[in-house]
Every structure is written in structure tokens, then in C-alpha cells.
Amino acid sequence: MLRRMVLIRAFDSLLPDLYTRELIRGSSHAAIGQEAVAVGACAALAPDDYITSTHRGHGHTIAKGGDVNRMMAELMGREDGYCRGKGGSMHIADFSIGMLGANGIVGGGFGIAAGAALSAQMRGSGQVALCFFGDGAINQSSFHGVANLAGIWKLPLILLCEDNRFAMSGRAELMIAGGDPVKRAQAYGFPGVSVDGMDVLAVKAAVAEAHERALAGDGPTLVVAACYRFQGHFSGDTQTYRTKEEMAPWLERDPIPAFRSSLLAEGWLREAEADAMEEEVATAIAAALEFAQASPWPEAQEAWEDVDA
Amino acid sequence: MPEMTYSEALNLALREEMRRDPAVFVMGEDVAVWGDRGGVFGVTRGLAEEFGPERVRDTPINEESIVGVAVGAALTGMRPVVEIMYSDFLTLTMEPLVNQAAKLRYMFGGQARVPLVVRTNLGASGGKAAQHSQSLETWMMHVPGLKVAMPSTPADARALLRTAIRDDNPVVFFEHKLLYFQRGEVPEQEESLEFGRAAVRREGRHATVVAAQAMLSKVLEVARRLASEGIDLEVIDPRTLVPFDIETVVESVRKTNRLLICHEATERGGWAAEIAMQVGELAFDHLDAPVARVCGANVPVPYSTPLEAAVVPGEAAIEQGLRALLAGARWGPAEIG
User: Where would a tag sit more exposed on chain B, N or C end, judged by fewer CB atoms within 10 A?
Assistant: First the structure.
């Protein structure tokens, strides 16, 4: 788990430099500071469970077991990218690991995840679907529609709200009526659970419990993971809507050093092993950059392919 | 050949496909227990009895989630057929339909399949007024990644729905309110009808008319009348708008040298304009007159009987349009009446 968190951090840390060097274009959104949510949640899922992701989705893909080579190639718009250059950062998907796609529409994953849960329920496959979404998305009407359906049909669905405190510049406390979003679950008759999104093991435990409920046929769970977006909404964000003073306590609670320290303190990991792992991640990231840059550009005619099956 | 209504033919197609493939299921508002056991227009009648509530699902009134959830189910091995009670309510499904269903396969580089059918109905009838009468098929036609079907007869309704359900792409399937209880012959054998094959409903040599559904009936009636004057119309029913069988239209225009397109959808930006453009590109030299159109007026559909009749193309407007076309006159904006 620590390795995946470090890998997410390393991957997303490259973005500003890649923009400056004009190796990537469009919109990419870093999830630095939120690694514990993605990794904790996916650690509680089975390999064939489904997830849907958001516009800030690199972490979710890596946490579910995605390949950083193909992710980087996709960001660079190359032939070997997950979407052969058609999707970019906001549309990375890997159906082979149950990753049903990042989504450029805020709340766009609700229907897809609930539909995957319905499909699993109808097929009796024992799969569960987990929908990652943000504190901004919980205000979309699609949340209401899907939460209601999931509630009446007891879908094997986990609604995982990454409450990173901001919908672009919109503060959660100013945008969400009724205070804590976790209370919304009550209205639909399923449990709402608050969890410290900076603590990977706490997230894993909360999602594992929701997963058990889903498998038992008891229906959906809303998990609200309190976390913090360390960087701007995207690379060019001036962040005039928040202060350094406000950020400081969150930055001190950085989930990666915290998890590393606790693993070291409890004897699960030795310092040398941790350092070697970080080096190995740096090598993997360097290899991903190399892989992506070596990958050919798609042929122009491919723009006409895959509109239809 | 047995006779049945358009609604019964659609019901038969659903029943046959659900029997054949356990992945096919039906979902929508009032599809299971309403009225005579299913569907405001009876299309899903009795299906819940045969297939159970798992596969014939009454949903809450939230069109966005009906289509949204269907997209997710379609991505993961199911073949949902959802009913949106009136095409006006498609407006509430634009996000999952246009941003998700139509684009996921493309955006994901071909990884996804979205075998989804969205059944709905269009058209004005009986004073349902502005929010239950719209014909929004052109909107759907504008979105790459969606197929658009609009069957005009019971036999086509059954065959095209069957093709739609077997298609691995999202299909928006437009039925017409006025057709649900019209009867027609339906072959005993299950028949498939490939998308993009227009039907020539009447052969003729003086002008080609393209029309579907309720407009098709009116055009055929006008054609019968004009035939008594020796005017011989060729009438083409496109069956599907995406893909559109432009070859059949062009071939006909090469013979008749005149084309009129008639649709109930509002004239401005309607599919008549698209077909006219394509015929201009492909067969300009064969046209003896500008392509004409008789379409719905550019206003919302009003409630009152004379008002509704004034804005939906009637036989008189169609006949007037045809006479002007045959006279070679330049044809201005439709005067509907």
C-alpha cells in the first residue's frame, strides 16, 4: 500500500514539469495529499470489483493496479496509452482491472458505478462497485437519483466521497447544505460513515466494512473520507481562495510520511527497505516517461475509429 | 401473416429477445405494473409476469439515473432496454446519454461496449402540449456515438427493436404516439432488419418524398390523391436516421429529379436540412428544383386542437409543398395549415 501511495505521489508530482515541457496538454488534476483514500479504498476491494473515478483520477487507477507506463503514454497522447491517445488524463480506463474510467463530468461516475453494481447483482457475480467522487459531486442531481435507486434496490455499491474541502474554489462548508455530507446517507436509508482520509488503514477498514455489507446483500454505504488537496485544482491554479495558514495543519498530516513512520515504528518495514522501495518507484516513473516518449503518435485516421463497436 | 398493433409488435420483440438472452432486461417508469400490466402505451405489457421483477424493473421518476444506471449495466455485461415515457424527458438524460453512453467506447480507446437501447416516443397527438409532444430525433442524430431508429410500421417496429437490442452501441429508439395502436402485418418468423436500409413505400417517377412515422401516413395519403391526377410520387421511409441510407434517396432522386422531405420535428436545424445537404453534395446535377421541406413549425407544440393542427404538418401543407415542388417554384419557409 505504501508503495502505491508513493507511486501516486511521484506520478502526479511530474505534471507541472510535463506541462512546462509541453509533453502533456489539456487538463490534468493532481491528487497529491489524497493518496490514502485511493489506496485504502482499493486495498479493501477484490481484483474483479469495479471502480469509477473522477477527473482527479490517476491515483484511483494506480491504486486499482493500473500500469503507469500506459497511463503516462495516455497523458502524452500516444498510441500505447490506455485509450490510444483518445482520452487523456480525464478518461483513463482499464476494464481488465475493473477500472471503469475516470470521468470529465463531475458526478459522471454515479450512474456507471450503480449500473455496474446492478449488473453484478443481476448476474449474481459477487462483485461490488465503488464510486469515487468529490465533495463537489455530492451536490449533483445524479447523486440523489443513484443514491435513491441504490437504496431501494440494495445495490452492492460503495459511494466513496473524497471530501478534499474544495470544489475548485468552492468550500464544502459553503456549498453543502445541512453541514456534514455524511448525513445525506440517512435520507436514503443506508449507513453513512466518516473516516480520516489521511489514514490509509482507517480508509481500508471503513471500505472493508462497506464491502461486507454489499456482499451480504445489505446494500450501499456512503463513506466520507476527510482529506485535503495539497495542490491547486490544476497546475495553473493561483489558489487565491485559501491561505497558507489554513493549509499548514493539513500539510503536516501528509498521509505518506505518516504511514511510513507508523510502519517503521511498528516494525513492519525497515528504513533500508523503505528507501529501496522509493528508489524503485523513482525508477518505475523514469521508465514510464521513457516508455511514453518512445511510444508512437496515433495515426490521424484513428480519430475515426471506435466511434461504434 | 398475423396482424398486430405497433405496440404489440414492440412487445413481441422485447419478449423474444428476453427469452433468447438473459442479459436483456427492461427498466423504466411504470413498465411493470401500470395499467394493464405494464407501460403507459402497453409496450411492456405482461413482461413482468413472464420474466419477473428482476428483469422488468419499475423505477423511481428520475430519468437521469435510469439512463445513467443503464450505461453502467451495459458496460458490464448486461443489455438494458430502458423506456423514457416521452421523448421530452430525454432532456433529463442528456448527461448519461450524450457524455457517457455515446462517448465511453471512443474515449476509452475501444475498451468499452455500450449495448443500450433507450426507447421513447415522439410526436404530437391529442393535445399533450409542449412538454409531451416534441420530436427530438435530430438532437440525437447530432451526437456521434448514438444510433437513431424511428420505425413506421408494426413489422419494422419489431424487426428494428430486435436489431437495436442486439447492437453493441447505444441506440435511441423513437416510437410515435399515433402509431401505437395502428395495426399491420408482422411476419411469423423473427426477422432482423439491418440499420441503414430505407424502405421504398411507394414507387414513382415525378418526385421523391422522404418521411417517417405519422408524416409517412400523411404523405402516402397525399400520394394516393395526386396519383388520380397522374402525379406519381416515390415515397421513402428512412427507418433509421443514424445510420442513414442516403444511397436509396440519391438513387431515387436520380430518377425523379425532385425531392421533398417531411418531418414533424421543428423545421429549423431539423434532419431535413441534413438530408438536403447530402443530396446537394451527391446528386446536385440531378435536381431540377431546390430540395423542399415541409416540417413542424418553429414553435413549441400548443395544446388547443386548432393550434396543434396549425403547427404539425398536415396533408394540405404536404400537398401544397409538393405542388410547388412539381411546378418547379422556389420553395420558401413552410406555411403550415
Answer: N
Cα distances (angstroms) measured from residue B263 to each of A214, B219, B268? 49, 10, 11
**Contact status of A100 with chain B (Cβ, < 8 Å):** yes
- How far is A82 from chain B, CA to nearest CA, in Å? 7
Catalytic residue among B63, B83, B137, B267: B63
**Using beta carbons and an 8 Å cutoff, which residues of B are at the interface with A?**
25, 54-55, 59-60, 62, 64-65, 67-78, 80, 95-96, 99-100, 104-115, 144-145, 147, 167-169
Among A residues 24-53, those touching chain B with beta carbons less than 8 Å apart: 50, 52
Q: What fold is seen in the domain B199-326? A: Rossmann fold (3.40.50)
Give the residue numbers spanning the domain of A60.
2-300
Instruction: Check if CATH label 3.40.50.1100 holds for domain B3-185.
Output: no
Ordered strands of the B199-202 beta sheet: B199-202, B233-237, B207-211, B259-266, B292-296
Count of residues making up chain B:
337
Topology match between the domains B3-185 and B199-326: yes
pLDDT of residue A237: 85
Number of structural domains chain A divides into: 1
pLDDT by residue (tens digit) across A194-212? 999 999 999 999 999 999 9
